[in-house]
C-alpha cells in the first residue's frame, strides 16, 4: 500500500480509537494490530506526531502492577480533526467503491 | 533477537533524531515490553509484534518525498454500463473532457456506458456521476474534487488528496490531453425521447441517427458532429470547436461559434442562423430555407439550393453558388468580396452597391455590366438580390 495513504489511514484509526476514551500505548497498538497486520512499533511515531500537532495530549498514570502508563487523550482540536478526517475518508471510500465495483 | 539487543539496535537507529526523541520512542518501546510481559508474552513475541525497526524509522521520517507514490496500483473498473426503462423527457449529458457519443437505441430503453481507458492519471482525475430528477436523466464526467494539478521542477503532476495531504501523486499529467479520448460516454436514447442536451469542454460530441424535438449542444474546444439526424430545433454553441452537420434534417438550426468552423453537408435546414466570429461557414449539397449567415473575419461559402440567403461579414468573403431560384438574397460586407452564382434561375433583380470596390453583373452569356451601383433585372426578375460592400468587390453571375 502507498505509504502516505497508509499513514493517513493509520492516523485516523488512532484518533478514532481515542474518541471513546483515553488509552495507553500498548492498549492502543494491541487494538489496531489486532485488526490489521502492521508493526506495532510504527504507531509510536504516529502518536508522537499527533501529540506534536496538538491532536492528543499525554499523561502518566500509575498502574496496579508495574510501571506508570502513558495515556493518550484526544484534545478538542483532535476531536474536530477526527470528525473531519472521518468524513473525508468516507467520501473517499465511497469514490473508491464506486470505481472498483461494476 | 532478544529484548536488550532489539532496544540497542533501536537506540542506534534513533540516534539521528536527537536525544529527546530517541529517549521518547525508547520509553514507548520499554513500556510496550513491560505491558507485553505482563500479558505473559515472551520477548520474541513482543519483538515480533513491534516489528521491523526500519519500518518504524520510515514512519518517523515525515513528509516522505513524493516519489514514494511510485508503488501505486490503482485498480479501476474502466467501464460502467447502465440501462433504464423509465420514460425520461430529457437527457442531459456533461462530457467535460470525454468524448460523448449519442445514437438511437434499438429498444425503448436508455443505455449509458462510461469508459475510461486512459492512463492512471486520467482514471484518478475523472469520475462518472449520474442522477435523475423530474423526469430528466443527468450524466456527468466530472473532475474529482480532491485531485489537483501541480508543477514541480517543471514536471506536471496530479495529486490525489486525502486528509489535506497528498496520498497519490502521479507524473505525466502533461500527456493527459493527448489521451482524453480514451474517456468515452456512449448513450443510446430510447425511441421518442424528445430532448437532448450535451455539453463538453475539450471532448468531442458525436450525435447520429436520432430523431429529436430539441437538441442543444455546447462545447469549448471540442467539435460537435451531428449526422443523419432529424431535429426540430437545434441550438449549438462552441468557442473554438467546429460544428459539423452531415445528412441532417433540421427544421430550425441556430449555430454560434467564436473561432470554430461551421460545416453543413448534404443537409436540409428549413430556417435558422449560422454565426461565427473568425470561423468559416460552409454549406454544401443540400437545401436551405430562410437562413442567416454572419461572420466577422470568417468566410461564407454556400453551395446549396436555397430559399433565402442573408449574409453579413466584416472582412470575410462571401461565395455562394445557388441552384434554382431563391426568393431573396441579401449580402453585406465591409472589406470582403462577394461572389454570387445563380444556376438555373428563372430570373433575377439585382441591386448592387459598392463604395470603392467593383460590381459586375452577368446574365447567361447575354449581358455583362460593370458598375458601382445600380439595379439590374433579367428573366422574370424572381430572385431579389441586394448586395452591398464598402471596399469589397461584387460579382453576380447567372448561368
Q: Overview of this structure, please?
A:
The complex is a heterodimer of chains A (102) and B (399). Chain A is α+β, with helices and mostly antiparallel strands and 102 residues long. Chain A has 4 helices and 3 strands. Chain A has a 3-stranded antiparallel β-sheet. By secondary structure, chain B is mainly β. Chain B has a 6-stranded parallel β-barrel with strand order 13-14-16-18-17-15. Chain B has a 3-stranded antiparallel β-sheet with strand order 7-8-9. At the A-B interface, α1, α2, α3 and α4 of A face α2, α4 and β9 of B.
Q: Tags for this entry?
A:
heterodimer, A: about 100 residues, alpha+beta, about 15% strand, globular, B: about 400 residues, mainly beta, six-stranded parallel barrel, three-stranded antiparallel β-sheet, 5 helices, about 15% helix
Short description:
The complex is a heterodimer of chains A (102) and B (399). Chain A has 4 helices and 3 strands, in the order αβααββα.
Stretches of chain A where pLDDT is under 50 for at least 5 consecutive residues are none
Largest interface: A-B, 40 and 42 residues
Largest beta-sheet characterization of chain A? 3 strands, antiparallel
Oligomeric state of this protein:
heterodimer
Q: Give me the count of strands of chain B.
A: 28
The helicity of chain B comes to 10-25%
Helix count of chain B, per DSSP?
5
User: How does the overall form of chain B come out from the CA principal axes?
Assistant: elongated
The major pleated sheet of chain B works out as:
6 strands, parallel, barrel
Strand order of the largest sheet of chain B: 13-14-16-18-17-15
Radius of gyration from the alpha-carbon trace of chain A, in angstroms: 15 Å
The pLDDT mean of chain A sits at: 87
Strand percentage of chain B lies at over 45%
Structural class of chain A: alpha+beta
Q: Please give the radius of gyration of chain B in angstroms.
A: 34 Å
Spatial arrangement of strands, main beta sheet of chain A: 1-3-2
Span between termini of chain B: 104 Å
